[in-house]
Write a structure and sequence with these properties.
Oligomer: single chain
CATH superfamily of the largest domain: MoaB/Mog-like domain
CATH topology of the largest domain: Molybdenum Cofactor Biosythetic Enzyme, Chain A
Number of domains: 2
Distance between the termini: 55 Å
Number of helices: 9
CATH class of the largest domain: Alpha Beta
CATH architecture of the largest domain: 3-Layer(aba) Sandwich
Radius of gyration: 22 Å
Largest sheet: 6 strands, mixed
Helix content: 25-40%
Shape: elongated
Order of helices and strands: EHHEHEHEHHEEEEHEHEEH
Structural class: alpha/beta
C-alpha cells in the first residue's frame, strides 16, 4: 500500500443522521484514544452523508494518504446502509455474501425472520476479513487498510480490541496536561516560544470558562517521554509566572 505516512490514520463517519444532528457521534473519541495507545495518530476526521460517490471518493483518497482508515456507520439492514457496497466499489471488488458472515447471521436469527434486510448484513467486498461481534450478530469487516465498523458505539468498543494484532503499532502517544488559570491571550507569546523550542511536541491550547473565571487547558502530546516531560515542566513554570501575579 502506497500511503504517505506511517503510524497515521483517518476516521470516516458515515451517516445522514450525524450530519443532521439527530445522532451525536461518540465513536471518534473512543477510536482516537484507542489508536493513540497503539501509537497511531489520527490526522483527519471526516463526516460524510450516505452517498455512494462521496463514500467511494473519501475511502480511496484517505486509504492512499494514511496507513489506516476506520469507517463507522452504514453497514446495517436498511436501504440507506450503503457503506459495504461503496467500499467494494472503492476497491473494485465484487459485492457478495460472505459465507461465514451469512452463517453467523443465519444462526443468530434462527428463531426469527431471517429476511432480506438481515441477509444484507452478510454482504461485503470479496475477500474481506471479518471483525466479529461478541453479541453473535452481524460482524464488521476490513479489507487491506480500511476497517469498516458499525455506527453503534457499544459494538465499536467490542470490536476494536480484536484488531490489536492486525494493526502495526508505533510508540505509544503520551499526553500530559497543564491547567492554566489565565486567559489564553495572556500566555500566547510565551507558549509560542516553548512550542518553537519543542517542534516535535504537539502543544494544544484550549480556553475555557467556569466558576466565573477564565482559564486555558494546555495539552502536550508526543511519543518521546524525556522531551515531553521537559516541555511539560517548562509550560508549568511559564504558567506559574502568570498565576503568581
Amino acid at each position: 500500500m502506497n500511503f504517505d505516512k506511517e503510524f497515521t490514520s483517518a476516521i470516516l463517519i458515515i451517516g445522514n443522521e450525524i450530519l443532521s444532528g439527530r445522532t451525536v457521534d461518540k465513536n471518534t473519541s473512543f477510536i482516537a484514544k484507542w489508536l493513540g495507545d497503539l501509537g497511531i495518530g489520527v490526522e483527519e476526521v471526516r463526516v460524510i452523508p450516505d452517498k455512494e460517490e462521496i463514500i467511494v471518493e473519501s475511502v480511496n483518497s484517505l486509504r492512499k494518504k494514511y496507513q489506516y482508515i476506520f469507517t463507522t456507520g452504514g453497514i446495517g439492514p436498511t436501504h440507506d446502509d450503503i457503506t459495504s457496497e461503496s467500499v467494494a466499489k472503492a476497491f473494485g471488488k465484487k459485492y457478495e455474501y460472505n459465507q461465514e458472515a451469512y452463517s453467523i447471521l443465519e444462526k443468530y436469527y434462527a428463531k426469527s425472520d431471517f429476511n432480506e434486510g438481515r441477509k444484507k448484513m452478510a454482504k461485503m467486498p470479496e475477500g474481506a476479513n471479518l471483525i466479529y461481534n461478541e453479541h453473535g450478530s452481524a460482524p464488521a469487516f476490513y479489507i487491506e487498510n480500511v476497517f469498516v465498523l458499525p455506527g453503534i458505539p457499544s459494538y465499536v468498543e467490542l470490536m476494536l480490541p480484536q484488531l490489536k494484532d492486525v494493526i502495526v503499532s508505533g510508540k505509544k502517544i503520551i499526553s500530559l496536561t497543564c491547567d492554566a488559570r489565565v486567559r489564553e491571550s495572556s500566555i500566547a507569546l510565551d507558549l509560542s516560544v516553548i512550542q518553537n523550542r519543542y517542534p516535535e511536541i504537539d502543544i494544544g491550547s484550549y480556553p475555557y470558562s467556569k466558576e466565573g473565571g477564565f482559564g486555558t487547558m494546555l495539552v502536550m502530546r508526543s511519543t518521546d517521554q524525556e522531551k515531553i516531560t521537559k516541555c511539560h515542566s517548562e509550560v508549568e513554570q511559564m504558567v506559574k509566572k502568570y498565576t503568581l501575579k
